[in-house]
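Appendix B. Chain record.
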Amino acid sequence: MARRESRKAGVLGDLQRLSVTMEANKDQLQGLEALRLKLTGVVTQTLDLSKQQAAFQASKQEASKKLRQLLIEGQSVANVIRTAVKDHFGPREEKIVEFGIQPFRGRKVKAATDKPAPTTPPAPAGPATPVKLDQ
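Structure tokens predicted for this chain:
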């Protein structure tokens, strides 16, 4: 018993081999002529669709490449437009928010922390109690 293929390429190869074998033995298989012709049509259509699919894949890759180029070009034009809009209205005007630009609203002042300066206790000048030496 023949092993059945499950991948597209394997199935197509199996169908092509069967079609060629049916063609070579069509004299001995007169009762299966309608099925042989149907199989030949299916194989032909499958090959045509595989070629069309490959062409579409190449076309898709080309379209993807063109799309990437256009997006990069669009970003460049958008940057120029935003710069011109910012120059036209000014960097502080809220109107430029509509164009996706954050206006300059000034710098935030850091809160001054009122910590007292650390004080160090004065060092003792000498011993607090006189030291007696034993004589």
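Further analysis of this model is presented in Appendix C.
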